[in-house]
Amino acid sequence: MINEEVFTEQAEYLSQDSFEKWSTTLHEEGNIIRKLSQAGAKLITGPRGCGKTTLLLKVNQKLLNDSNSKAIPIYVNYKSSLKLEPLYRNNTNAAHWFNQWLLYKVLFGLYESLENKNFKDFNIKPLKNKSRIQSIIKLLELGNIDEIQTETLTSATLIETIESVVKELNLNRCVLLLDDAGHAFSSEQQQDFFEFFREVKTKIISPKAAVYPGVTNYSSSFHIGHDAEEIDVWLKPTSEGYLEFMHSLLKTRIGENTFNKLLETKNNLNLLCFAAYGIPRSLLNMISKFYKSDISDTNFTIKLSNKEVLRVIKDNFNRTYQIYDSLRIKLPMYEKFIDIGGSIYERFLSINKEFNKGGRPEKQSTIIAIQRPVSSELTKVLGFFQYAGLVSNQGISNRGDKGVYELYELHYSGIIDRNVFFSSRGVNVENYSIAFKNRPNHHYPRYSVSGILSELDVDTTFKLSLPACPNCNTPRISEESKFCSSCGTKLKDASIFESIVKQDITLLPITINRANSIKENSNINCIKDLLMDTDNRQLRMVPQIGPIWANRIKSYAEEFFA
């Protein structure tokens, strides 16, 4: 019998027992966890699914369980921050209420840490009523601010509370572990968050936050390097011990016997590991596709046939690209950037395919080098690619008189799906595995920005999609416009959160047949309907959806707007 949690992709949805049992150690993990456990502000960065939450939870667990530790951790997940985004559209005091939510979430996290440490009887005023704190958080997330009747919680009060706890427990510091901090797609929220981050940083309180490349907006007064050290935690496929780590991850999840049977087709297994591109979530999802029935069953297709492996890799690339494509909903202002980004990415793949033509397995490139200066428009698109995991920044190459180049590696699933290596008719799995293992360090195509955008009219292509005046439909003059230039009507931006939750459930990573079955057998049609189905009662009415799939689909809905 297979444990129903085996293919749970997000660490925060695992039970504590499963999280501890299935934890796998990264090559540089010890150094990262040490930095996150120590004093000082840190930002860990990487695309969705690369393991940021797992690392923060490991730090939280380490500090809670270590009787010799002189630090108390507070883990806070800010994944639901976009729920408060509508306040920025209809409330002049939105920044205040968002700040209250940030503070109360930390206060609630402190409560949980004290309970985990078996220190429950504190006489510090803000800690007297845990249920009231939870109620305030819920009211803020629902936007029911008129029902909140309590004194304002300030950063100073929170700092005083935490430092009092640290002193009473005879500790040295508190480590704030702030997960999904830079994930809210409202730039106002992100900037307000980093002001909060700066405010709560003291000699005793050390904040750490998980952020995302390409989409995180820092406040004007926040400076990486000065206010916080940035740590890239994305395990690159070129890293030492990459395949060993991915193998260990699988062996831990599916058991040694099943894993050993997968090793019988080692080249195909390795190709799946490379196709995951350093994202454990992607590897688990791909391997789950070989379970032909409900995962509580034992009917597992062990043999990784070439045809099936390539189909699953194609699905993985499409799924990764969907994360990028979903930004048109979450960042509507950049819709045209995201549209043209698709053409730019295909051009990257084509450039590498032509470059690799006729090359030996050890001479196949996965990198595109772009000569500086890189235009702000292309930089923005590259940032979106990094957020989705479609590319990873590999640093700088200084060619002297020939120029300085920024290096970007392309997602291996895209390399495989588009048959970028060798330019042969079909993918030779063994040759691809050899090529990925032996990638050359300084062998890649070099292009100028004009060479990449040669067929595009930058002035017309990279335009911001600004909402028109709701009264007379006159286009906005600029992003900063507050009033219509034609009729003088006050301009408002549409709520990103409300736009997202109105989307059809077919946009979730479920099959069309399953989405249609949900619609036909329940009252669920859009993302909001799933979020409102708090006890999964509607989902459980759908044939072939039991508790496992109901929880999985609900997590897909929560991830969609997160």
What do these coordinates show?
The structure is a single chain. The chain is of the alpha/beta class. It has 3 domains: 28-232, 3-Layer(aba) Sandwich (Rossmann fold); 325-461, no CATH class; 502-561. Helix content is 46%, strand content 9%. The chain has 25 helices and 9 strands. The protein has helices at 16-22, 29-37, 52-65, 87-90, 94-116, 130-142, 155-168, 187-200, 242-254, 256-262, 266-275, 280-288, 306-325, 327-330, 335-356, 376-388, 412-417, 429-437, 449-452, 458-461, 496-501, 512-521, 527-532, 537-540, 547-561, and strands at residues 42-45, 71-77, 173-179, 205-211, 229-232, 367-371, 391-398, 404-410, 446-447. A hairpin with a 5-residue loop joins β7 (391-398) and β8. The two termini are 33 Å apart. The model is unreliable at 18-22 and 293-300 (pLDDT under 50).
Straight-line N-to-C gap: 33 Å
CATH class of the largest domain, anyone?
A: Alpha Beta
Domains (count):
3
Assign a percent range to the helix content.
40-55%
Overall shape: globular
Number of helices: 25
What gyration radius follows from the Cα positions, in whole Å?
25 Å
Major pleated sheet: 5 strands, parallel
Which fold name fills CATH's third level, the topology of the largest domain?
Answer: Rossmann fold
Strand fraction: 5-15%
Structural class: alpha/beta
Sequence of strands across the biggest β-sheet: 2-3-4-1-5
Number of strands: 9
Overall pLDDT score: 83
CATH architecture title of the largest domain: 3-Layer(aba) Sandwich
| Unreliable residue runs | 18-22, 293-300
